[in-house]
Design a protein that fits this description.
- With about 325 residues, this protein is α/β, with parallel strands linked by helices.
- The chain contains 16 helices and ten strands.
- Strands 2-1-3-10-4 form a five-stranded mixed sheet, with helices on both faces. A five-stranded mixed sheet has the order 7-6-8-5-9, sandwiched between helices.
- Helix 7 links the parallel strand 6 (about 130) and strand 7.
- The longest helix has 18 residues, at about 225-245.
Length: about 325
Amino acid sequence: MRAIVATLVTCLFILGHPLLTRAQRLTRAVIGYSALQAPMAPLWIAKEQGLFAKYGIDPDLVFVRTTSVLIAGLFSGHIEMTYTGGSGALSATRNGVDLRFIAAFGNRLTHVLVTHSEIQKPKDLREKRIGVVSMGGTQWITTKLGLEYLGLDDQRDKIQIVPIGDQTVLRTALERKSIDAAFFNGVMGEDLKHKGYRILADLSAANIRSVVSGVVVKRSFLTKNRELITNVLKALIEGLAFVVSPVRKPLVTRALMEHLKISARAAETGYQYLMKDLDINLYPSIEGLQNLQRFIQNYDPLIAEVKVAELVDPTILRTLEESGFVEKTFTTY
């Protein structure tokens, strides 16, 4: 009997049985992200639903709390690709890091401004404290653009912008009254609304262009690893199609609950905000990058010299579109 079993096992290896060789075919990819918020759903779903494995990728998803550290990891090579907003990558190009945006999953601002209940209109924010993740980051620029949309200016209206930390830390700061308001992703904003806080403004109505979430790589890595990056992008595009598919809503809301530590009710009502967050156009917005550049150059004048259009490399995305992959994926879901 032992001889028979040994023979069968040997045959399986010789014949390359798919159950034994699938793991061997997977290529490891280190993907970093710095925002613990709902628009990361395509990334989380792509891993949890086996979509990365479907395209031969073994993903190592690394959460880094600050964008500057994330970009440093990309520069050092410890992180190969990032799923992040545009500001950190744009700032890094000014310092000689040759990065490329290859796709975007969010090209406009959709944050909501959450305040304590006693703040009833925008002018009530004068001389108040607004929390941000970090100074100079994407969410900081979102805050500046949001205040501009509301007719406010932090300098003129004596609004104190306070760097706190990621959205979960901002939520705690708001609950402890360390700050009076902050711009949150809609899902977390809905969770706070259920706790008695006020959603004072919804930026999705303003149609302000930005690059809120997208895939960024070093140009040298892109040149040498196009097949790997193509397969990662395939998994993420299918992850996006999965997330926006109405019949997959229960699985998506469950993922939001687990990753964001929010209630079922908040995930259910916040799902509508997630649909606003995500952009199926996929091409990074040049206008959005210019918006980011406009604010960054206020404290870093040399960023004005960066030609933002040259930071976008849509060649892999265009190939996937021309092959019919993108249309087929969204049609299937």
